[in-house]
């Protein structure tokens, strides 16, 4: 009975292979566990050790560079601050409810109003803002980039026409876009009762402008490298332009398109932090900036918490895109990593 | 008689632009094919067999001359000239049923009802003995089965002419023999007009009414045409001992290996066969885009 379906040493968690219980060879289990879990754990521990040693030797104006322990303490502190703020908010609303109830008891016709809580956002609120902002920017970018990519892939003329523009704007830094976008948004988005804050729109649009290029380019390549036989099938069938795109072009370029979308989301997330710093959008970028300006003895550790949070969220976003790619991809056997 | 000209290939020549100037792949190909006839095109690699087929399909435009099908000129691809490609060319994200459905919906839109279309798809899949794997995707079935679905898709379009570009070339010998028998059976029932490209002398003799032998390129043209007067239905085992079968076979072999000896490698022209080497610049520009993405 051959039940060896376990991967060779060297393959890691990254391959996304599912641990299939049915084919587990129990005598191999310890080795598999070591390969899949032991190696990453050991490498992380070694990293923390190295960090600790190096950090304790660097003196800054805010004291020693914090090691893993201080950073962990600050992570806990940030969580506690968040809990405390939530409790304050709950009490604030409870007080209002109570006061309103009393007013209504005295005079049933009285007009009562609930005032919104205006406490400063906590670290976790800022994470939420950042994710919403990056997703907004990324969605707008995808909506623009995928159709352009398809057009460029289908028509060599459009590709030749747009390519210089795409290649010119692709390497532009978000920091260069930001002032332009800020001025334009300020001029165009004028409203007495704005639905979104300007900083949110500026940050999201900066993300859009910086992260649409990989999707355009990858979609173009995906569409233009469709199997020639399939193109001929489409021609022989005289499929309409729309049917051709929907039935043949899109499915066959999905892998390349998603490769582009994943790169785009990664870039978008990086760009967002910088954009939030300058646009003062209340997300992780502003958190880092405020801590830097604050300059307390805890600031460095708190910024490091943000750095790790940014990294982990970026990783999770990428995994989510991967899951989405698997869900929409027709070739379930292809290794996507 | 309805034996008036069904498909006319007259004085077809084609030149492909290359950086070194135009390359003449075909020179004045002339052939008339009548309804229900099975014609094989045979010749060495690079002789432009596929180019002829692609011109009939409308995928390439002849530089000179033209194709007339039922008194209408062919100038673009269409489902009345269904093509079975060498590499099945099924859409990998659709099941066998859906692949045929794509063609049927396109051809019979407004002419057949939903359930009629369904029955027609199933009927065609049954014809190629694929009804058991209707709902499988191409990567779940064997090479021979994929080619069967490809044939079902082509037949389901009810084409005036069925064009087959080395349909069994990518299959192993046993599967190929099996597919040839299936094709004989289908042909006996439907009596389609078929033009098939092949490298295989036995296949050509076994299946064809006429074998068109092409000279070597560049500027390839029809060398000889062999009328195969073997009674149908043909049985491969009986044929093996039939002196007429062996005579036809040796005639084709003599043409290919004596009169049209394969030119030495050095003199081989750029491969225009298979349709894979797209003339012109589209393929190059796709590569260029790829490079940029990699950068």
What can you see in these coordinates?
The complex is a heterodimer of chains A (337) and B (295). Chain A is an all-alpha fold and 337 residues long. Helices cover 72% and strands 1% of the residues of chain A. Chain A has 10 helices and 2 strands; from the N terminus they run αββααααααααα. Chain A has helices spanning 29-55, 68-106, 123-154, 156-169, 174-188, 198-224, 228-236, 241-279, 284-294, 299-328; strands at 59-60, 63-64. In chain A, helix 2 (68-106) crosses helix 10, helix 3 packs antiparallel against helix 4 and helix 3 crosses helix 9 (284-294). Chain A starts with 28 loop residues before the first helix and ends in a 9-residue tail after the last helix. Chain B has 295 residues and is of the alpha/beta class. Chain B has 9 helices and 10 strands. Chain B has helices spanning 49-57, 96-108, 114-127, 143-156, 173-190, 201-207, 236-240, 243-259, 282-294; strands spanning 7-16, 23-33, 38-42, 64-69, 72-73, 81-84, 161-165, 193-198, 210-214, 222-227. In chain B, the strands form 2 sheets. In chain B, strands 6-7-8-3-9-10 form a 6-stranded mixed sheet, sandwiched between helices. In chain B, a hairpin with a 2-residue loop joins strand 4 and strand 5. In chain B, helix 6 packs across helix 8. The interface between A and B is medium-sized, with 29 and 33 residues.
What's this model, at a glance?
The complex is a heterodimer of chains A (337) and B (295). By secondary structure, chain A is mainly alpha-helical.
User: What is the strand tally of chain A?
Assistant: 2
Number of strands of chain B: 10
Can you count the helices of chain A?
Answer: 10
- Helix/strand/pairing class of chain A, anyone? mainly alpha
The coarse silhouette of chain B is globular
Report the end-to-end length of chain B measured between terminal Cα atoms.
65 Å
Integer average pLDDT of chain B = 84
- Order of adjacent strands in the largest pleated sheet of chain A: 1-2
Strand % of chain A is under 5%
The SSE order of chain A reads HEEHHHHHHHHH
N-C termini distance of chain A: 31 Å
Helix share of residues of chain A? over 70%
Q: Biggest interface: chains and residue counts?
A: A-B, 29 and 33 residues
- Give me the secondary-structure category of chain B: alpha/beta
